[in-house]
Task: inverse folding
């Protein structure tokens, strides 16, 4: 018998598993939509009419980042930690699924769900509000950024879940990271300039900050220097990769 | 198929399993692995499957993907219907897979397909893993306490189904169990472990003859019975019973005559794994204590 390979049925299993865990659709779909609509409807009352599309688009771009955070960071860590706690990955391995196959299936399912959530979010926003119509370059940059944030979240979530191997502490830690990233990254309406100096420094290391603050310029077609943003992706990506590698080393050679 | 040589498994400083004499698992073997808690049974299976680090040699003629295992506890995603879990693991359409459908009916599992894993009873959970394991083409299968935690009736039914399923198959089976009666129905070899040591490994009948003689007669342990059977050799057994060792037909006939004359109820056995294992352990420790 050959080792099992990736199949559509395995991806479907992971996708349904995401849908069945209510907090992922809630935090990944309902919450960003509600928060976005609420903030656009209430927080922009002082903005002059002429600047409203720009302000709304800025908020939309900021809050859309909650989707990878909720679906991948919260979703993957909580589902995978529960599975580790119940030794489901080991069971799958004993059924002939190499670890990378089950992880790729999860990754694909999570990114499929994230994509659907993003499409729904964008469709609702463009139907509900007058927004800036982006150029194709702005769309590509935004989509690539969201996927890169998703990959960073995946490494971080997987590292935390693999380190604790229990749902409780994993969920607690990722929830703290989730809210911290939302607050510092400008997704809760706070600008990085309003933060204390120490938090401003942390904010400058987060790609979320640049998307929340600067991506409106890309959507407006204003020339933008990507260097600090790319640097922040590298920094957060490296931290997530280090967390992942450390968790693997920590768990290496431990009992099954 | 599998050869284990000079194996040592440690958990921290504690030695969980030591195998000095080579153990050979050959094609078509039906092996029962027995021993009390902490004997090293699951550790042995985990080592063979390569799930834990060990010192020594385990030679495998089979690829890891050809070794299946039904662990003591098997969990699956609990928020998805069972049929979807099965289709993902087996990568098949349940409706068109004849073998899986045969197994589903064989294990009377069809009503569970639409349920979630968390809603299944203990017996149904065990049957799910059995269906998943049996429907794949493994050369060797390990069953780690498949029936633990199940009520007597479910246990019996599961074992009956397993015996029937494997009666004409050539899969090598390695079955860990505390229930010796179950093993009697399924296995022809016994690997007896105790406190991480191999006490005995061999043919079930040979081991019985080695430690218990030709047959044994078991009756209640009370002063009258003890007095009655005092002329005969007695084997070590559980406190509540007396086991008479009958090395030949004549001894058995004489013991039976005595018991029948006194109207004592007794059980005759020629392959009691429990009493064999008690006496094997006794002899092992007597030898090894003397040796030390």
Result:
């Amino acid at each position: 018998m050959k080792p099992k390979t990736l199949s559509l049925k395995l991806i479907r299993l992971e996708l349904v598993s995401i849908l069945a865990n209510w907090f992922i659709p809630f935090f990944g779909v309902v919450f960003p939509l509600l928060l976005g609509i609420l903030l656009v409807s209430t927080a922009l009352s002082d903005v002059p009419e002429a600047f409203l599309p720009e302000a709304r688009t800025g908020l939309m771009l900021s809050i859309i980042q909650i989707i990878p955070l909720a679906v991948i960071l919260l979703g993957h860590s909580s589902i995978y930690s529960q599975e580790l706690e119940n030794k489901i990955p080991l069971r799958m391995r004993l059924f002939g699924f190499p670890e990378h196959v089950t992880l790729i299936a999860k990754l694909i399912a999570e990114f499929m769900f994230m994509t659907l959530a993003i499409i729904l979010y964008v469709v609702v926003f463009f139907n509900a509000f007058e927004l800036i119509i982006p150029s194709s370059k702005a769309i590509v940059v935004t989509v690539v950024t969201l996927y890169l944030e998703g990959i960073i979240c995946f490494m971080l979530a997987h590292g935390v879940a693999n380190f604790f191997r229990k749902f409780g502490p994993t969920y607690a830690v990722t929830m703290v990271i989730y809210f911290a990233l939302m607050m510092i990254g400008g997704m809760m309406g706070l600008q990085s300039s309003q933060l204390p100096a120490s938090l401003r420094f942390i904010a400058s290391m987060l790609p979320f900050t640049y998307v929340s603050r600067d991506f409106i310029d890309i959507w407006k077609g204003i020339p933008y220097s990507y260097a600090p943003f790319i640097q922040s992706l590298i920094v957060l990506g490296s931290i997530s990769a280090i967390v992942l590698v450390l968790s693997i080393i920590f768990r290496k050679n431990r009992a099954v | 198929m599998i050869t284990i040589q000079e194996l040592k498994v440690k958990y921290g400083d504690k030695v969980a399993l030591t195998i000095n004499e080579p153990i050979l698992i050959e094609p078509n073997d039906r092996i029962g692995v027995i021993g009390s808690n902490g004997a090293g049974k699951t550790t042995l299976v985990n080592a063979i499957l390569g799930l834990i680090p060990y010192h020594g040699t385990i030679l495998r003629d089979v690829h890891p993907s050809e070794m299946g295992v039904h662990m003591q506890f098997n969990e699956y995603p609990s928020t998805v219907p069972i049929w979807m879990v099965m289709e993902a693991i087996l990568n098949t359409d349940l409706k068109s897979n004849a073998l899986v459908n045969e197994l589903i009916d064989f294990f009377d599992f069809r009503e569970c397909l639409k349920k979630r894993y968390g809603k299944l009873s203990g017996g149904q959970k065990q049957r799910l893993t059995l269906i998943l394991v049996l429907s794949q083409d493994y050369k060797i299968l390990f069953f780690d306490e498949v029936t633990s935690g199940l009520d007597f009736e479910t246990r019996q039914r599961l074992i009956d189904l397993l015996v029937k399923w494997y009666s004409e198959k050539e899969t090598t089976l390695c079955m860990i169990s505390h229930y010796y009666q179950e093993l009697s129905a399924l296995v022809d070899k016994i690997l007896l472990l105790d406190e991480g040591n191999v006490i005995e490994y061999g043919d079930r009948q040979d081991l019985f003859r080695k430690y218990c003689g030709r047959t044994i007669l078991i009756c209640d342990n009370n002063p009258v019975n003890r007095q009655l059977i005092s002329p005969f050799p007695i084997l070590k057994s559980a406190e509540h019973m007396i086991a008479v060792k009958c090395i030949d037909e004549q001894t058995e006939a004489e013991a039976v005559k005595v018991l029948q004359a006194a109207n004592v109820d007794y059980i005759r056995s020629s392959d009691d794994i429990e009493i064999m294992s008690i006496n094997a352990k006794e002899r092992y420790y007597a030898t090894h204590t003397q040796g030390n």
User: Anything to note?
Assistant: Chain A has a mean pLDDT of 93. Chain A has eleven helices and no strands. The two ends of chain A are 24 Å apart (CA to CA). Chain A touches chain B at residues 1-4, 7, 9-10, 12-13, 16-17, 20-21, 83, 86-88, 90-92, 94-97, 253, 255-256 (CB under 8 Å).
